[in-house]
Amino acid sequence: MKQVPVAVCGLMKVKTMISYTNLNIVRGRIQRHTTVDKYGSDTAVGTTYAPVTSNKFYRMPQISGAEKLRVKAGDVTNNNGQAGIWAITVYGIASTGLAASEVLLTNGTSAGVLGEIDFIRVYRVKVAACGTYAAVSIPSHTVEVIIETSGGVEWAKIPAVNSKGEGTSQIAAYSTAFGEEIYLSHLELHVDANKPVDFILYRRKDFMRTATPYLAVEVIDEFPQVTSNLVIKNPYPKKGFPEYTDIWFEAKATQVATAVAKFTLISTDLS
């Protein structure tokens, strides 16, 4: 009978224990711990670095630049009682530094009513309600939906491809709220075949600071010349990020390409 070295057995045991721990977090069995899945896509990566999002940016104003948000005027079907989107939930960080979410109502070809929360970060938007029972060939909405300020500055969008709405944003970025600490536990990068893409993972700490000196943006990891699917499955949380930290992916290519960045975070509530 083949014997397995003790060191290997120990490593397998540790990995198994961590896998069970991650599963229990997902199931909500470990208090003050949750998992956060983030996904961003840029279908037209250019020759200069830009955030891996469907609109190539991630708004990061100071507290003084906080904004109330609304749904931009769009398709006539995106309105209460119509076939499209009725409401969208915005997730992010309020000017207080607390995690915040707010439901914004669509208003068809007119802009929606401004929300009440002053946001300084928006890392996810999702369709909250729609008028169509969607299926494989029946989309819940057919055009992209944009979240903007009262001045028309775009903050986020829900894309639509081939007249089929995707239901959620694509933002490869996250910001930690008051009392939150996160750990990077899983990472995937995907690109078009034979079209190399350079990825950089950035971090900026203490975004609630209102006066100099500020903390600099730091490079956490670089992934140059990615030419195929890159998956890093590591059960050990590798990177720790304290409260009030922005993390985001940027990408560039030598020719127009599609880039996707996906990562899973373990979030701990220390408040």
Give an account of the 3D structure.
By secondary structure, this protein is mostly beta strands. It folds into two domains: 126 residues, Jelly Rolls (Sandwich); 103 residues, no CATH class. The chain contains one helix and 18 strands. Strands 1, 12, 15, 16 and 18 form a five-stranded antiparallel beta sheet that branches. Strands 2, 11, 13, 14 and 17 form a five-stranded antiparallel beta sheet that branches. Strands 3-7-8 form a three-stranded antiparallel beta sheet, with no helix packed on it.
SSE inventory with pairings:
Elements (H helix, E strand, L loop, with lengths): L5 H21 L6 E13 L4 E2 L18 E2 L13 E10 L4 E7 L13 E12 L14 E4 L5 E5 L1 E2 L2 E2 L7 E3 L4 E12 L5 E8 L13 E9 L3 E4 L5 E3 L4 E8 L3 E13 L2
Antiparallel strand pairs: 1-18, 2-17, 3-7, 4-5, 4-6, 7-8, 9-10, 11-17, 12-15, 12-16, 12-18, 13-14, 13-17
Number of helices: 1
Number of strands: 18
State the share of residues found in helices, binned by percent.
under 10%
CATH architecture classification of the largest domain: Sandwich
Number of domains: 2
What pattern of helices and strands is seen along the backbone? HEEEEEEEEEEEEEEEEEE
Low-confidence stretches: 1-17
CATH class of the largest domain: Mainly Beta
Largest sheet: 5 strands, antiparallel
Shape: globular
Q: Look at the helices and sheets and give the structural class.
A: mainly beta
Rg from C-alpha positions? Answer: 20 Å
Q: Report the average pLDDT across residues.
A: 89
Kindly report the CATH topology of the largest domain.
Jelly Rolls
Distance between the termini: 52 Å
Strand content is: 35-45%
